Amino acid sequence: MTDTMRAVVLDAPGPPEALQLRALPIPKARPGQVLIQVKAFGLNRSELHTRLGLADGVTFPRVLGIEAVGVVAASPGGEFTVGQQVAAMMGGMGRTYDGGYAEYTSVPAAQVIPFESGLDWATLGAVPEMLQTSNGSLTIGLDAQTGQSILIRGGTSSVGMTTAILAKQLGMKVLSTTRNPNKVDALKRIGVDHVIIDHGDIATEVRAIVDGGVDKALELIGTPTLPDTLRATRVHGVVCFTGMLSNEWTVDEFYPIDYLPRGVRLSAYGGDASDLSAEVLQGFLDAVGAGKATVPVHRVFTIDQIQEAHAYMESGNAAGKLVVTTAE
Q1: What is the pLDDT of residue 1?
Q2: What's the pLDDT at 56?
Q3: Per the database record, which ranges form the Enoyl reductase (ER) domain (predicted)?
Q4: Exposed, middle or buried by CB within 10 Å (0-12, 13-18, 19+), for 242?
Q5: Residue 105: helix, strand or coil by DSSP?
Q6: Strands 233-241 and 214-219, how do they pair?
Q7: What is the spatial distance between Cα 203 and Cα 214, in angstroms, rounded to a whole number?
Q8: Which among 189, 169, 196, 173 is positioned nearest to 298, based on CA atoms?
Q9: Rounded CA gap, 149 and 214, in Å?
Q10: 33: helix, coil or strand?
């Protein structure tokens, strides 16, 4: 192992060009930490928020990246074995300490999840945060059940597509939205039952498909569409606020009786690595390996293309996950 690594550094908020690929010392893992040789990492909207200066509690310069997959390079506390395949995410990665946009990252052992898979690293890199958010939204945020209907607002995002895949595995009726008619086929291919072109007001159309409104709704756009998503949901149905693709996540002068339709319940989900068990991660990867599930990867970049990758993420043109590999 050399003493230096390539890492993507953000000195201060700015455009994609603010992300600079530099040589940094390989971090040292202390007891309670795990040093991971990063093979791939997914791109996430929270990293875009950090780059744009919208994230709280971030100090600069910073290596971004709230997730990564790779192999254990060192585990001083003995929690993991050198060479073991692992995923790491959340817990301050890329915000309060350096994250996954690098060839090596040192993270708390509590943020690390082991797995075994023969899938390629680009596919594996798409999974951790995406699966954790989708699975957590369905189970914790929505308490989704077999036979229920679900509306996914922001359906062509990586979390939206993964949620659709998991919901179909659960036996749910899935409605997903997209603003772009060219992305309809991408949603149909993963099993979405009804694709709705989102012009901002879809509640009437949803209720025409599901009488009385959907049982569950996952809000991934943010507060601009949340009132309409609530109106698309039945009495005693649940809306889970998980995403903010619009970069808007607060409601001014919130008055619950006026804002919430009668009898519709609003929850929220923002999870951590502890919400994704090794069993759930391994089960999903095994299902993908057996051809029983898919990973919605839209495009793969190398770490040298990080500026192009971030610009593409910001454009909103992806239908699925954007992944970066550390291969030269």
Answers
A1: 59
A2: 85
A3: 14-324
A4: buried
A5: strand
A6: parallel
A7: 10
A8: 189
A9: 5
A10: strand
For residue 295, give both structure tokens. Answer: 């990973």
Contact 113, 93 (CB under 8 A): no
Q: Alpha-carbon distance 216 to 233, whole Å?
A: 7
Distance, in Å, from the CA atom of 279 to the CA atom of 166, rounded to the nearest integer, reads: 15
Nearest to 229 by CA among 168, 176, 185: 176
Residue 99: both structure tokens together: 């994250």
CB distance 276 to 69 below 8 Å: no
- For residue 214, the model assigns a pLDDT of 98
Q: Which of 154, 159, 157 is nearest to 175 (CA)?
A: 154
Distance of alpha carbon 193 from its chain centroid, rounded?
22
Residues of the chain with pLDDT under 70: 1, 328
Q: At what angle do helices 128-136 and 158-169 cross, to 10 degrees?
A: 60
Strand 297-302 versus strand 321-325 pairing type: parallel
Please name which of 177, 180, 173 lies closest in space to residue 195, comparing C-alpha atoms: 177
Q: Rounded to whole angstroms, how far apart are CA atoms 115 and 242?
A: 26
Q: What is the model's pLDDT at position 244? A: 84
Taking phi first (over 0 means left), then psi (-120 to 50 degrees means alpha), and beta for anything else, what does residue 83 get?
left
Helix 278-289 / helix 128-136 crossing angle, nearest 10 deg: 110
pTM as predicted: 0.91
Tokens of 23: 């040589």
- The two beta strands, 194-197 and 149-153, are unpaired
